[in-house]
Amino acid sequence: MNEVTIKGEVKFVDEVREYGANGFRKQEVVVETGDGKWDNPIAVEFTKDNIEKSQTLKKGDRVTIEARVNGREWQGRDGVTKWFTSIAAYKVQTEGGSDAAPAAPVQADSDSSSFDTYDEYDDGGSDEVF
Predict the structure, then answer these.
(1) 2-114 architecture in CATH?
(2) Where are the domains of the chain?
(3) Is residue 10 a contact partner of residue 59, using CB atoms and an 8 Å limit?
(4) How far, in whole angstroms, is CA 17 from its chain's centroid?
(5) Beta-carbon count within 10 A of 109 CB
(6) Largest Cα–Cα distance in the chain?
């Protein structure tokens, strides 16, 4: 299992979105981790029970996020194989050391990623890149 710590300032907090017939939920938070000279925005996703941990975050918050890096191989209709990476957060602390939301038990699900339950990249259209 690959884990990372992401530190920076919250740049964007998306709304909770629901995907697929099974009601998979995800909220994306973008954290600016740059050095002031160069931007380095990192998109982090909160899924399933971990969405509760992102609910109090707002633009400008200084955060430390613990997350897992998940990858997935996907083959398009054209037969071309593509790879996707997601950063799935399981813990977040705001500046000052407090958890952003009440801690929920972390489920050890090393094989799980948001890509296992839906395909946000499949819009039903062509795989052609314009």
Answers:
(1) Beta Barrel (2.40)
(2) 2-114
(3) yes
(4) 12
(5) 13
(6) 50
**Residue 130 DSSP SS3:** coil
4: closest CA among 43, 34, 38? 43
CA 69 to chain centre: 9
Integer Cα distance of 113 and 107 in angstroms: 12
Q: In order along the chain (130 residues), what is the average pLDDT of each group of 10 residues?
A: 94 94 93 93 95 94 97 94 95 78 44 48 50
pLDDT of residue 124: 52
Q: How far apart are CA 103 and CA 101, in angstroms?
A: 6
Q: Which of 19, 23, 49 is nearest to 109 (CA)?
A: 49
Distance CA 110, CA 34 (A): 29
DSSP-assigned states of every residue in 72-92 = EEEE-TTS-EEEEEEEEEEEE
